[in-house]
């Protein structure tokens, strides 16, 4: 699995420049069973959509990350409290071959409500005419709430580890390899470590690389090599 959280190019900030050419590299590195989760805004995906298609990457689905707070860049627009992550896979391999472990919600179970079967002679004397049956775990919703890292972040666009854990469990088997193209704070590295997946990350900024390395080194007893 590849996780990519590139600069979205949404702002005029100096570091927020779209990166060219990484889509092809990602497509070349993906196994046929692999897929890639890319973080971005709708503006980013509209602008970059053709690059994914030209690299031979097929869109599969997206999730919405709902934050507990967000950014209000514009006083005349909604306060933005969400980001998107879209999943792509190699267009030359069928979706059926892609590793995909559907996630379920641990705290809710689907219920089936059906009319009770009663012996005919009881008539209408039963107070409850319906019964509720356990329908098994509920499939996780595509809008996923996770607290953003404000106040404790070591990177301005740091993603929450628990959100990354959901994406990793969905798309990378135990012992599988995560490639992180824009590592930033090392959030995906921490999530991979927690879940027993291998991890290789790339980060161009030496300060962030150092901060991410220090963060991972603190996660004892989980050792990093
Ligand atoms: C949106 S941030 C990633 C944040 C990260 N997901 C996290 O949770 O902390 C994008 C990162 O990509 C890095 N970056 C930009 N261009 C890059 C490149 N060509 N190769 C590797 N990293 C790059 C930036 O320095 C920045 O740290």
Which descriptors apply to this entry?
binds S-adenosylmethionine, 30% strand, globular, 2 domains, Rossmann fold, alpha/beta, 225 residues
Polypeptide structure, described:
- The protein has 225 residues and is of the alpha/beta class.
- It has 2 domains: 180 residues, Rossmann fold (3-Layer(aba) Sandwich); 35 residues, no CATH class.
- It is built from 5 helices and 9 strands.
- A 7-stranded mixed β-sheet has the order 7-3-4-2-1-8-9, with helices on both faces. The protein has a two-stranded antiparallel ribbon with strand order 5-6.
- It is globular and about 80 Å long.
- It binds S-adenosylmethionine.
- S-adenosylmethionine binds next to loops.
Describe the protein's topology.
Layout: E1 2-4, H1 22-29, E2 35-40, H2 42-54, E3 57-71, E4 80-90, E5 104-115, E6 130-139, E7 143-145, H3 161-171, E8 177-180, H4 187-195, E9 198-201, H5 206-217
Parallel strand pairs: 1-2, 1-8, 3-7, 8-9
Antiparallel strand pairs: 2-4, 3-4, 5-6
This protein binds S-adenosylmethionine (SAM).
